[in-house]
C-alpha cells in the first residue's frame, strides 16, 4: 500500500475499485490474481493505530471529528447521530465486530444463486479474520436470560442465521486484537494490486458522445496534498470501474459524476450524464433502541458475542463495560458504564425509507440523508416487541446477579430516558414503550440503499443504462443481511470478484 501522494499523475489499469472497505478489498484482492487493479481508499491504514486495533479502545474514534479520524460523523435529517468509515477496511475497522451469515431471504434478493460459491466465499473470509468468542459471565448470563425470555431454542455457537439465541463469530482474536478486511490483502497478487491511501475519488469519467449509453472510462482522485490524479481503464471490452464506497459514498459519487436525479444535478450545477431518478432513493437505517442496565457486581469489557433472533422481527445484542452511547460520566446519574452493560434491539426489515441528497460538490463532505425512522407503524410495533423481550431478559432469574434487586423496570427505563443522547430533546420519563422507542431511537450503523438492486443496479450489480461500471456494496441492499451485515458483505465482495474473474478468464480463453 502507498500514499496517494506517491501516485503517478496518470495511470492505466484493467479494473479500478473505489473504496477499500468491506466489499472493495475482497473484490480487488480477487481480481488482482490475473489482472491489474487500482484500489482507492479515502482514509488511512488501521494498522498501528491502537484505537482501531484494540478491543478495549472500541468507539474512541466516534467522538474524533478530526479530518484524519477513521470515523466520519454525520447527523441525519432525523436528528440521529451516525458514522461512516474513513479507513482501510471500512466498517470492519470501526464496528463492534460481530460476524453472522445472512439469511436465505438476503441471498435471494441479492441475486446470489451459487450456493457452493457462497459457502466458499464465507470460508475464504473466515480463515483469515473470524474467531470464536469466549463468553464472559455477563454475556453467559444474558444468553440464559434470552432463552428464559422466550428467544428459543438455544443454538450454541454457529455462524448460521437461525431463530433462537446463539453465540456468533467475532473479528477480535483472544488477545483482543481486531482483524479487518485489510487482512484479506494477504490473498492479493502484489504485482496485480496497486492500493492507494488518502485517495479521495472526485469524479468518475464517462464517454457519451455519439453513444446510446454512457461508458465509464476513468476516475479523477485527489491525494492528501490536494493534487489531482487520473486513472484510466485500458479500454478493453471487459475493463470496469467498481464502486464500493458504501451506502453514502456510492450514490454521492455517482451524482457528483453526473448520474442521478436531474433536479439534484441541476441544483448543484453538475453537467448531466444520465438522469437516474432512483439514485439516492430507498435509504434505510435499521432502528436501534438500547437499555443500559447498571450492575451491582463488576463486569468485563466485551462487545457483541451473542444474539437473540426473535420470531417478532428483532435481533437482541449487547455490550458490557463500554460507553456505547458516548455519554458523559455524569449522564449515568451515579452509575458507571464500566459497571453495567447495554442490551439493544435492532428492528429487522424496516418498511420506512428515506433519501440521500447532495449538500455541495465536495466529495469529502457528507451528503444529506433522511431515514424516516418509524414512519411506517409496523416498524414501531416491532420496536416495542423487541424492548419487551429485553425487559423480560433483565427480569429473568438467569440475569438476576447483574441487576440491582431494588431497581424496577420503570427505574431502568427512566434512567435511560434521562441520558441526553437523542435529538430533539425529550421528556425525562417514558410514558409508553412506543414513546420510548421514538425518543431513544439510535443507529446500529447498518444503513443501506441508495443504489438499490432492481432500481439502480441489475442482478449482476451493473448500473442500469451505463456500461463498464458496477456498484457492489451496502448501497445496493434491499435488506440489511442477517443480524449484522459485515459477514454477508465480505462474502459478497469475494463472490462477485470470483464471478467477474471467472467470466473474464473464460472470455479471454475463447479469443
TrEMBL record:
Name of the protein: Glucose-methanol-choline oxidoreductase
Q: Which cysteines are joined by disulfide bonds?
A: 383-437
Give the superkingdom in one word: Eukaryota
Q: Where is the signal peptide?
A: none
The molecular function terms of the Gene Ontology recorded here are: flavin adenine dinucleotide binding; oxidoreductase activity, acting on CH-OH group of donors
Regarding protein family, the annotation reads: Belongs to the GMC oxidoreductase family.
Pfam families for this protein: GMC_oxred_C, GMC_oxred_N
Amino acid at each position: 500500500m502507498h500514499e496517494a501522494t506517491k501516485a503517478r499523475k496518470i495511470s492505466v489499469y484493467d479494473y479500478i475499485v473505489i473504496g477499500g472497505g468491506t466489499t472493495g478489498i475482497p473484490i480487488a484482492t480477487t481480481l488482482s490474481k490475473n489482472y491489474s487493479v487500482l484500489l482507492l481508499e479515502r482514509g488511512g491504514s488501521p494498522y498501528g493505530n491502537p484505537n482501531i486495533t484494540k478491543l478495549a479502545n472500541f468507539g474512541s474514534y466516534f467522538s474524533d471529528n478530526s479530518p484524519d479520524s477513521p470515523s466520519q460523523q454525520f447527523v441525519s435529517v432525523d436528528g440521529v447521530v451516525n458514522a461512516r468509515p474513513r479507513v482501510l477496511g471500512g466498517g470492519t475497522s470501526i464496528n463492534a465486530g460481530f460476524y453472522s451469515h445472512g439469511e436465505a431471504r438476503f441471498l435471494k434478493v441479492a441475486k446470489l444463486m451459487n450456493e457452493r460459491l457462497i459457502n466458499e466465499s464465507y470460508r475464504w473470509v473466515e480463515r483469515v479474520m473470524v474467531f470464536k468468542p469466549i463468553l464472559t459471565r455477563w454475556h453467559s448470563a444474558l444468553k440464559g436470560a434470552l432463552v428464559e425470555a422466550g428467544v428459543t431454542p438455544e443454538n450454541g455457537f454457529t455462524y448460521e442465521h437461525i431463530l433462537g439465541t446463539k453465540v456468533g463469530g467475532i473479528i477480535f482474536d483472544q488477545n483482543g486484537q481486531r482483524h479487518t478486511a485489510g487482512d484479506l490483502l494477504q490473498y492479493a497478487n502484489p504485482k496485480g494490486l496497486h492500493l492507494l491511501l488518502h485517495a479521495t475519488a472526485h469524479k468518475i469519467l464517462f464517454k457519451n458522445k455519439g453513444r446510446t449509453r454512457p461508458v465509464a472510462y476513468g476516475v479523477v482522485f485527489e491525494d492528501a496534498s490536494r493534487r489531482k490524479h487520473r486513472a484510466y481503464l485500458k479500454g478493453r471490452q471487459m475493463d470496469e470501474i467498481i464502486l464500493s464506497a458504501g451506502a453514502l459514498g456510492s450514490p454521492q459519487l455517482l451524482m457528483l459524476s453526473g448520474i442521478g436525479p436531474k433536479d439534484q444535478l441541476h441544483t448543484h450545477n453538475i453537467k448531466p450524464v444520465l438522469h437516474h431518478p432512483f439514485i439516492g432513493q430507498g435509504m434505510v437505517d435499521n432502528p436501534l433502541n438500547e437499555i443500559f442496565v447498571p450492575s451491582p457486581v463488576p463486569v468485563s469489557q466485551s462487545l457483541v458475542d451473542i444474539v437473540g433472533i426473535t420470531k417478532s422481527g428483532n435481533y437482541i445484542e449487547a455490550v458490557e463495560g463500554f460507553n456505547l452511547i458516548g455519554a458523559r460520566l455524569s449522564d449515568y446519574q451515579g452509575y458507571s458504564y464500566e459497571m453495567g452493560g447495554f442490551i439493544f434491539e435492532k428492528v429487522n426489515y424496516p418498511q420506512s425509507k428515506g433519501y440521500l441528497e447532495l449538500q455541495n460538490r465536495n466529495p469529502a463532505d457528507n451528503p444529506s440523508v433522511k431515514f424516516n425512522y418509524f414512519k411506517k407503524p409496523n416498524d414501531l410495533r416491532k420496536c416495542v416487541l423487541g424492548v419487551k423481550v429485553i425487559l423480560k431478559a433483565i427480569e429473568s432469574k438467569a440475569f438476576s446477579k447483574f441487576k440491582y434487586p431494588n431497581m424496577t423496570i420503570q427505574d431502568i427505563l427512566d434512567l435511560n430516558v434521562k441520558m441526553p443522547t437523542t435529538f430533539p430533546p425529550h421528556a425525562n420519563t417514558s410514558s409508553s414503550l412506543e414513546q420510548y422507542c421514538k425518543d431513544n431511537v439510535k443507529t446500529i450503523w447498518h444503513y443501506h440503499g441508495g443504489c438499490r438492486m432492481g432500481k439502480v443496479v441489475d442482478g449482476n450489480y451493473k448500473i442500469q443504462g451505463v456500461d463498464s461500471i458496477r456498484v457492489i456494496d451496502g448501497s445496493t441492499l434491499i435488506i440489511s443481511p442477517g443480524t449484522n451485515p459485515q459477514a454477508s458483505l465480505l462474502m459478497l465482495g469475494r463472490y462477485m470478484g470470483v464471478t467477474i474473474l471467472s467470466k473474464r478468464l473464460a472470455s479471454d480463453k475463447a479469443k
